[in-house]
Amino acid sequence: MAEFPWEPNIERGEWLRPMEEEPFTSLLSTVPRGFEMYARIFHPIERDRPRHTKTWLGVDEATFSDNTEDANDADDADDLETEPASWTQAAASFGTTMHAEAQYARLVRSDYGETHGVIAPDGWRYGDTREGSLDPATFAFASGVLARHTSTPGTGIAAVWEGWGLFDVARASRYSVDTETSRDGVLPKLAGRVPKKSVRSRSEDMETGPRFELLAETGRSYVLFQAGAQDFADPSWPRHAPWVREDFWYQSPNLLWPEDHAWVLASEIDFDSTLIAGTTALISELVRTPGLEVLPIRADADLTWDGDAINRPETSYEP
């Protein structure tokens, strides 16, 4: 398979324009109104614990290291039992309640931005979620299902946010904003995006060509590529993605839709989950698919940290 071609015709995204009429950061400003059903894919996390104690409780974390540059550190890494985990498992570890509008920080009884390395009462130590991207394997699982629910599985559009710094660095640098201002709701939370030059060659047209501006005042500006759901069903899809920077930088598309507009996938840059709009049959299959943690969600849900639906502790977890 060749690299996914760059798509200069940004009019292919115009059908999403009605989302701009919705309140910013609402679910319907992230995926379009008018679909039968909506769902949320929860981005995977990792957890670990010492092999010999089976718990971090009572263990000095300073005796272990994530740095494996020397033999002793490598031994420490071998002494850790590490595994992928779901949000449901995290909720069980912390005695909280998993639900469709859950916020990960609340599930692990932490403040926003302070979830990495939290230790649960059952002894597991949990990592943070990744915002704005699904790992290649999870994206492949989801894409395999999506490909079965469109008449055009081989054609569509993948949109990647230019602010990741994977295209033109000069453009991307304008996306750094003050974090505290963003949390107050004045601006979108775009801080912390460090522009990174791609190691792959870029045509000048792709670097400087037209961007699809959606909710433009919020900095949502995308580069479009021609790709279908079945292209992403293969976990090796990063080899064909021109925007993938290096082996460790597996940015999934922030938006994906098929030519027939049967569904839309959106990994909003500030969300640690991915939203799907589609048919009831599609959502039902996604919920049942091994390798995915998916729950149906209301179309009027608000997933922002300031959203009333999830900002009240009683709706996020049981004390």
Task: Describe the protein.
The chain is α+β, with helices and mostly antiparallel strands. The protein has two domains: 10-41 and 132-310, no CATH class; 44-129, no CATH class. Helix content is 21%, strand content 16%. It is built from eleven helices and twelve strands. Strands 7-8-6-9-10-11-1-12 form an eight-stranded antiparallel beta sheet, covered by helices on one side. The protein has a four-stranded antiparallel beta sheet with strand order 3-2-5-4. β9 and β10 form a beta hairpin. The longest helix has 12 residues, at 136-147. It is globular.
Key terms for this structure?
319 residues; eight-stranded antiparallel beta sheet; 11 helices; disordered C terminus
Question: What's a concise summary of this model?
Answer:
By secondary structure, the chain is an alpha+beta fold.
* Average pLDDT reading: 83
**SSE ordering:** EEHEHHEEHEHHHEEHEEEHEHH
Distance from first to last alpha carbon: 51 Å
* Poorly predicted spans: 66-74, 176-201, 306-319
Main sheet: strands, sense, barrel: 8 strands, antiparallel
Number of domains: 2
> Structural class, please?
alpha+beta
Strand content: 15-25%
Number of separate helices: 11
What's the alpha carbon Rg, rounded to whole Å? 20 Å
The level of helicity is 10-25%
* Count of beta strands: 12
Strand order of the largest sheet: 7-8-6-9-10-11-1-12
Molecular shape:
globular
Describe the protein's topology:
Elements (H helix, E strand, L loop, with lengths): L36 E6 L2 E6 L20 H8 L1 E6 L1 H8 L9 H4 L10 E2 L5 E2 L9 H12 L8 E6 L7 H4 L6 H5 L20 H5 L3 E2 L7 E6 L2 H4 L22 E4 L5 E3 L6 E6 L1 H9 L5 E3 L11 H4 L1 H4 L3
Antiparallel strand pairs: 1-11, 1-12, 2-3, 2-5, 4-5, 6-8, 6-9, 7-8, 9-10, 10-11
